[in-house]
Amino acid sequence: GDGARLLAWQRIRSGDIGTLEPPSLSEDGRLVAFVAGKSERRERSCCRNVYVLDRITGAITQESVNADGTSPSGDSAAPRLSADGRVIAFETLARSLLPDQGSRPGRRVIVRDRLTGGMRTPGALGVAPNGETSQSALSGSGLAVAFTSDATNLAKGRDTDGGETDVYLWRLDADTIERVSVNAEGVQPSTGASHSPSINSEGDLVAFVSAAQLVPEDMNNVPDVYVRDVRRGRTWLVSRGAAGTRADAGSFSPALSADGRYVAFVSMATNLGATDRNSDSDIYIHDVATGATTLVSATARRETANSGSRRPALSADGRLVVYQSVASNLGSATECPPTSPDTNLLPDIYVFDRSTRCVTRISGSPAADWWSPSVAAAIDGAGTIVLFSSTQPVDAEVTTDFNLFARLILGRGAGHVRRSPPP
Question: Alpha carbon of 167 to those of 170, 199, 258, 332, 402: distances in Å?
Fold first, then answer.
């Protein structure tokens, strides 16, 4: 049928919903990077590991693996694939993955060449960071990684905000690192943490969240979403209304389209769109070229969502926005295409089409709700397949683990979605 189908077993306990990360897809949607917990097939593994699934062949490979082929002794998470699927970035607590990088505890960003098996971690001039590195965002080209760190020895110059987190850009080909969370003059503010980077395909635009004042007009004293153009040395505020209105509450979770034109983000603000009449978190999309900011988490008739929405993701051209929402009024029985009423009062996955302004529920089946939460969605570059995690029971499965599901959309999906063995 047209409903969502099981793609892979993740075996992540339902109690871990707050730490569940979205999967990552290659540009054509064939390769899927995801996190899975300990399974019956890998009794030696104590921890969550990163895997890549080939949707066509059904083959699964473990990417968070030691040089000798054994599983590491710490959790790995947040995988990001390059457009061609050759390069993968993720974060890990496992020191055994790169034992020559010192014994300092905490998370580290790892970049792995899936063809050669080589692994690298960011560090200036070969010196290990004196803090954590996390939240990696890999460019489609696979040549640049944006990440978050509280280290003070990663970039040139003094780290003026001390131990607060900053966003950095690591160019893998030149092995250079520069601080991205700076103002238009390239100056780092003395206060205000920055985090949650997202990067375009070329690796020269980075969206991120910052509590610092990076532009003069940002005077609201709440976290905002910014974009830094590394090539041109520009920084601008994204979380604002079309007329330059300052957000009256915080914004977070940016997602940058591959072409760099659109930024989707979450905001608690009530003054970014004329139709936002709730006090919950909403999804917006900002057009960098025109400056327009549009409310995404609304009905096809532009009625406000009756509950909160989170975690946006974009197709490569920014036309489709996928997100999760607890709202029950986003779908329609008569429009865009019609869907059954949402009565489960749980997170579901929706897709908003900027061209048609249609909102479609992706999780579950067209005929009925799933009585299980669906969260942490991702979409491929072409906008043909959406992946998400859910505790929806499958066949005779009696556990309440999160597993990975796939849904082909708009009738454009290519290839057969196969059920794959658990990793």
Answer: 10, 11, 19, 40, 30
Residue 97 corresponds to which tokens in the numbers above?
Answer: 């993955």
Distance, C-alpha 119 to centroid of its chain: 22
For the record, the structure tokens of 77 come out as 């998470």
- Token match 């993740």: residue? 10
The alpha-carbon radius of gyration of the chain (Å, integer) is: 21
Of 91, 84, 118, residue with least CA distance to 197: 91
Can you give 322-360 as a three-state secondary structure string? EEEECCCCCCCCCCCCCCCCCCCCCCEEEEEECCCCCEE
**Tokens read off for 318:** 């920014």
**DSSP string computed for 140-156:** TTSSEEEEEE--SSSSS
pLDDT tens track for 241-292: 877 888 999 999 999 999 999 999 999 998 887 666 778 999 999 999 999 9
Q: Per-residue pLDDT tens for 208-253?
A: 999 999 999 888 999 999 999 999 999 999 999 877 888 999 999 9
> Which helix (H) or strand (E) element contains residue 7?
strand 5-12
User: Residue 16: phi, psi to the nearest 5?
Assistant: -100, 25
- Structure tokens given for 223: 């976290």
- Beta-bridge partner residues of 385: 408
Specify the amino acid at residue 164. E
C-alpha–C-alpha distance, residues 401 and 269, integer Å: 34
